[in-house]
Specification:
- Two copies of one chain form a homodimer.
- The first copy, chain A, has 763 residues and is α+β, with helices and mostly antiparallel strands.
- In chain A, 28% of the residues lie in helices and 25% in strands.
- The first copy, chain A, contains 19 helices and 33 strands.
- In chain A, strands 3-5-1-14-11-12-13 form a seven-stranded mixed beta sheet, with helices on both faces. The first copy, chain A, has a six-stranded mixed beta sheet with strand order 10-15-16-17-9-28, with helices on both faces.
- In chain A, strand 15 and strand 16 form a beta hairpin.
- The N and C termini of chain A lie far apart (60 Å).
- In chain A, 61% of the residues are buried.
- Chains A and B meet through helix 1, strand 21, helix 15 and strand 27 of A and strand 19, helix 15 and strand 25 of B.
Chain lengths: 763, 763
């Protein structure tokens, strides 16, 4: 199939790769504006406290005036949040976590700003704080948001006490299912809080211009979402906010919503000057929005033959002090909780719970790696008890194309069996090799996300084509878009020029997240190319003495299909069009994608629609465990990815390598550790991010069935590769040394402790 | 007709009028970039001299290094020019006018830059200089461009000696026509050199970025032309040059080509920093590109009944040291020279001649006010001799719709008679009032220019529509475009949002000149609106349960034509489209306009195609002459403008008021005076620009026949109102005191001298 393509499917580097490698690319922090000030945020030292007074006079004196210091009284009173609105921009009456913004300053230098912060005096009266979600759900627990009452959704109470949201999904009769089962399995799993770990910390610059306009430079994944949120926060018309999406040094969900942009604007409005805010790595660790820690209780009823007939899951997402996108994350957890298995009776309860910690948000496949760790670990427990092969058990229960999940949402593009078989073969699952060595597999899925994307193309005077899209180049977006454009237009890749991007002039794009870019931008570009091609043919037809439908474009020239010797180079067509015939030639295209339909009787609470099409990723791990030290060495990690069609192989591979890196960190080492609400390891070393030498051999397999909704049958691959990793590792560890770790990360301490316990039991 | 429109034809102010009035608008000189340097240009003090050496060492010392000083050796070797290429960026071997760039510096402040210039030592060996084009055409004259040989165009020699170009147009047999005439008229007219007088002097900023990219901020009328020229000069691909067109404080032709941008780039490339260059008013007067001074010899053969049967015109355009756009200007003079009269035998020779003065270029209706002054003055001379009414003579000979000029190019949209009759009535031509008072009329025409324009529209999430065009807002462009968009879409004007502009992302637009904007941008916007509307209807049809063709848009809602109660606000359609159905909605449109066809047997040399459609403007003046002082008081000036349709009345009126101001300055007071090639009056006061109290009552009449090629039958009106003014004044002066001034400006000195001569003759 690939042979017939000239650009898509080829190993092509990003167009700005040289600039990235040589450091010439400008990140947000590289931008300097004239007279720009440097902002810093004063953060709460208490996890829960009443603010009794703020004295900023000394800071104002140091900075040269009151206009360089802001607090809640300078900020819009609106409460913000990606799902619910419960967070003030600055804490006003009380603080709810260590790290919450209380005031901010703008100074001539970052150093002066830090000094100014030390000159602000805040009087606090501490309050009892809650750090454990189970404790928080107790009816007698102190309320973190006293003023938020219970809230009833369309069917059920979805917010009460410290429960921020409660999502349920039900199918069949789960208790009846359990009664009919031959075996019951009940397990409790824990996952830790991890950061997204993007290399570039948050940074933004804002200028509040005259006439109420605001211009922002920020490395967001969703410039149009930022525009919409800022327009709402500052009560400005959409067009009065211009967001310039900058080169982005990683997001993984951390840059999907307004984070620091409003502080820059508030400081710029008050000071009258541009303000830059760059977040330190420590602040990233203590005040930003990690992946939710969860507790997952999963009970499964299985027949003798291995068929699963009932599953009940209770998930608790620790969302921290403010809801942010937590309800959506925990709602997604509910949707995924029963796994990609055909189960007639399902009951899921997913709770998103406030605690006095920083707010959790989305992190690569929001809400999903946690339940996947749980159900894929339990699949091996079940297989073990039934004496079945883990692959066989999974294949027996695996969903088929067109399966409707417990919530009613379809599963399309189901490559679960192909990917599981592929990794089992590649890892040679049935054969063992060496002492304390083991192998494990697991599978996960995530959407080929939907949502609005637009693309515009203009033919330039020299025959090059400028391509405008609204999505930032977060994941190789630009080269993918250029490849699709070149392929569809029949124009050499180096004549496709990506234009600068901002919300003012770029076509709308909802966001670069949810593994939707290749799918949605790809299709929008394809549609724009079709439009441009039609117009090029119309313009060329009279010059070639034929009708537009008899023309095609190849290698930058437009020609008569049956007589390709009759042709005009596009550069010549452009010249004549711009300078003597009918004007510039412009094309446009848009795309949305197909949404799911839910069974509204089956679901309540937050169920966010991500579409119908999914990408499956199965992974197989081989590990070697040192039973003396508890150290786990991952020997090999094989990933099989049902991606439909690979538009850009290096980019796709990078998604797999990066996802596996993140999945292994989640499995083995990463953890935000807190003591009484305070993060005690706010740096990469203590936090435990994996370094290059820590990485095993990773093998990347693409299954290209062309079964996706994207161009050429492609599907998204942004989130999927980090979804099943932890379970594959946990299963391999069990296979190696016979201990089942149900709590992430699987540290040497936990291994040694489990080995000890196992030894005691066996003795 | 107008009643049926909601936005076009209405007195609507520009959307940024408040910002302009309060000074909040940013002009190029208001832009500051970090670490920006200030450039200054060292200019030749000699009109013609050999450069024997340049010593920049002291300047380099002062500025802190060699990278802050540039000369010819730092500049691309390419020769530049709008028609021919004969001008180096910096003089290398010799200088050809006082004011020619020899070197440039970039300094920390403008003051330091000026100081640095005084530290550059240039050794010159002076050469004989030529200032008079007649002298320059002498075969024995010293050659200003020794190395340029003769050049033969498709038919004839068009460049020889100091003649930069020679354009000829011939029809019939002019000598035979003269033999058949009852009366012959031979007159010689002179017009002076004037500046465009735009309030904002030239200013530009450039940054030469890594990876060979260049970004420029400049107040050009043609960002895409600047992009193309810079791309050529610096041998960069088109897309490596980004031109940001800034708010423009007037151009009138002065900002149509690269002027100072290359110097900013050369300085930025060498210094590694952004460089701003702002030209002083004195430099504007001494080194930029004024309207050509001309000598026009016109011989006309007339039958007894007043019909003109032959006209021979010889035009000499003094183009200064370099050709710039001179060949096109003098070629246009040739096209216009016989006037808008039906003459069977015509012979025109138009010469563009080098002299050792600054290069002339285009100035509002390039090449045309000069011959119009000549033939419209002669029309009154003829009428006088024949005892005919000047109106009657003109009406008798006036061209009709569809007339082919001597060069074969059609005259469409011919409102000559209507405008002449209108001004004659309004000025009450037949009646006189007071001593030394007189009345005169004249008519001129200019094109409703053609050329490529594009427009793109995107529906935003809130139902506003962002409109992108590539033309700067030089002449009320943005409000005109927004009015057309609002009208065509049925969306309230305040929901049309103009986007920022630059060459990277804006649709192509050839230039804001030639009176083409309302015509071409207007039509491009109309086409884009039609495209967007079709897509909106398609998106709304399923929601309204009907077919797209049954829908219309009014007041920001889309509705079923026959059941308007069935409707959806566009904001709602936008929301559903962006967030749940088929993606953003984008439309685009382009336009070119109809070119003329020339009779290639009839023309040789530079004949630039401006299209077929024309706008006629007739003006009537009443003057009172003080025969003691020679002072002319213009009592009243009436302008009748065959504009087709007025899209924005205040903007159209401003074109007339501004054009009359410029026309009156050309007629009465403005003149660049030189002595041995040196401008001796380089400031507005000595130059003689008219101030507000100098202006007469100006009455503006629009004839709206809907006979134009633009939207709603509109035509261009940028250049026309300054075309016939000088002749109307000269004719009124003759009518008042019986003296015929054939040389502009008509100063008191010339009046007194002519009165004296007349007195002597009569005595």
């Amino acid at each position: 199939m690939k042979e017939r393509f000239s650009y898509v499917g080829k190993r092509l580097p990003a167009q700005d790769i040289k600039e990235k490698v040589t450091g010439a690319v400008q990140y947000t922090d590289d931008i300097k504006l004239p007279d720009m000030l440097f902002g810093k945020i004063l953060r709460s030292p208490h996890p829960h406290a009443r603010i009794e007074g703020i004295d900023t006079s000394n800071a104002e004196k140091l900075l040269g005036g009151g206009k360089y210091v802001v607090t809640a009284s300078d900020a819009p009173a609106i409460l913000v949040g990606g799902a619910l609105r419960d967070m003030p921009l600055f804490a006003k009456d009380k603080v709810r976590y260590i790290g919450e913004p209380v005031a901010a300053v703008a100074a001539r230098s970052p150093e002066q700003a830090i000094q100014a912060l030390t000159n602000i005096k805040v009087e606090y009266k501490t309050l009892p704080a809650i750090f454990d979600p189970v404790e928080a759900m107790d009816k007698k627990a102190v309320l973190i948001h006293e003023h938020l009452g219970d809230y009833r959704g369309s069917q059920d109470v979805i917010r009460f006490g410290n429960v921020c949201s409660h999502t349920t999904i039900k199918r069949g009769d789960v208790e009846k299912g359990f009664r009919e089962a031959d075996h019951l399995f009940e397990d409790i799993f824990h996952t830790q809080s991890i950061i997204q770990g993007q290399i570039e910390p948050h940074a933004a610059i804002a200028v509040a211009r005259s006439a109420g306009r605001v211009e922002v430079w920020t490395h967001t994944t969703g410039a149009f979402r930022i525009r919409q949120q800022l327009s709402e926060i500052f009560e400005l018309p959409l067009h009065a906010v211009i967001v310039n999406p900058m080169t982005i040094g990683g997001s993984f969900g951390s840059k999907n919503f307004v984070r620091i942009e409003p502080y820059c604007i508030i400081l710029s409005k008050k000071s009258g000057l541009p303000v830059k805010l760059v977040i330190s790595r420590e602040e990233e660790f203590t005040s930003f929005n990690p992946r939710h820690a969860t507790t997952i209780e999963i009970k499964t009823g299985v027949k003798k033959d291995g068929s699963i007939i009932a599953r009940k899951v209770r998930l608790t997402y620790d969302t921290g002090a403010y809801s942010d996108i937590g309800p959506v994350v925990s709602g997604e957890g509910a949707k995924q909780a029963a796994g990609p298995y055909n189960i007639p009776n399902v009951a899921v309860d997913s709770y998103c719970v406030y605690t006095n910690k920083m707010s959790a948000a989305c992190c690569r496949a929001h809400g999903t790696p946690q339940p996947t760790f749980a159900f894929e670990s339990q699949m091996d427990i079940i297989a073990g008890r039934l004496g079945m092969d883990p692959l066989e058990l999974r294949l027996k229960n695996a969903v088929e194309e067109g399966y409707a999940g417990p919530g009613g949402d379809l599963y399309l593009g189901v490559g679960i069996k192909e990917t599981l078989i592929k990794v089992s073969e590649k890892i040679d699952l049935k054969n063992r090799d060496g002492v304390n060595r083991g192998k494990g597999i697991a599978v996960g899925n995530w959407y080929s996300g939907v949502g609005a994307s637009g693309a515009m193309m203009k033919l330039n005077e020299d025959g090059t084509v400028s391509l405008s899209i609204g999505a930032p180049d977060a994941t190789g977006t630009d080269i993918m878009a250029a490849q699709v454009a070149a392929e569809e237009l029949g124009v050499p890749l180096d004549r496709i020029v990506m234009t600068t991007k901002n919300t003012d002039h770029s076509p709308f794009d909802i966001i670069s997240s949810g593994s939707r870019i290749t799918h949605c931008i790809g299709q929008a570009v394809k549609n724009a190319a079709a439009d441009l091609k039609a117009k090029l043919s119309e313009a060329a037809a009279p010059l070639l003495g034929t009708d537009p439908e008899h023309l095609e474009i190849d290698d930058g020239a437009i020609m008569v299909k049956k007589a390709p010797e009759k042709q005009i180079p596009l550069s010549q067509l452009a010249m004549s069009s711009h300078f003597s015939t009918h004007g510039p030639i412009i094309g446009s295209g848009t795309y949305f994608g197909k949404l799911s339909s839910f069974d509204r009787e089956a679901v309540s609470g937050f169920v966010y629609d991500m579409g119908e099409d999914r990408t499956f990723v199965a992974q197989g791990a081989e590990v070697e465990v040192d039973t003396q030290t508890g150290n786990i060495r991952v020997v090999k990690l094989i990933s099989a990815n049902d991606i439909g069609f690979v538009v850009n192989p290096p980019n796709a591979e990078n998604q797999v390598f990066g996802g596996v890196h993140q999945g292994l960190g989640f499995a083995l080492s990463e953890e935000i550790k807190t003591e009484a609400g305070r993060v005690v390891n706010p740096n990469f070393r203590d936090y435990g991010i994996l370094r290059a030498p820590d990485m095993p051999e990773v093998e990347c397999n693409f299954i290209e069935s062309g079964n996706g909704p994207g161009p050429y049958g492609a599907k998204g691959l942004g989130e999927q590769p980090n979804v099943p990793t932890a379970a594959a590792i946990a299963n391999a560890v069990y296979d190696a040394i016979g201990v089942r770790i149900k709590s992430l990360p699987i540290t040497p301490e936990k291994i040694l402790s489990a080995l000890k316990e196992k030894g005691e039991q066996e003795r």
